[in-house]
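Sample pair:
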Amino acid sequence: MEHLNLSPAAADVLAERQRQITAEGWTLAHDDWQNQYGDLAIAASCYARHAYGRGWVYPEEPERYQDEEAPNDWPWDDTWWKPDSPRRDLIKATALLLAELERLDRLSQRNQK
């Protein structure tokens, strides 16, 4: 594959995806086994909605933005809900969507065998 010139946003998303795997321990096998029902996509939508719906709070009161409770449809334990900033949350959301796409690709490859 030809070398790609990534925008800072794209590089940040790829770095976040790598962090999810290495720092949090969310391996590909974990994603395949524990997130079969759209949990990764649901979590991504929660972060994206939070950035959009509550982003206006962040510039004046970042702690209010960060202290929001997990949404009702957050798929995991509330301790994993960690809003940061609108930009950072969109990075997390996009990395989670990438993880879901990768999971679906692996599932498709397994089903073709």
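The longest helix spans residues 86-112.
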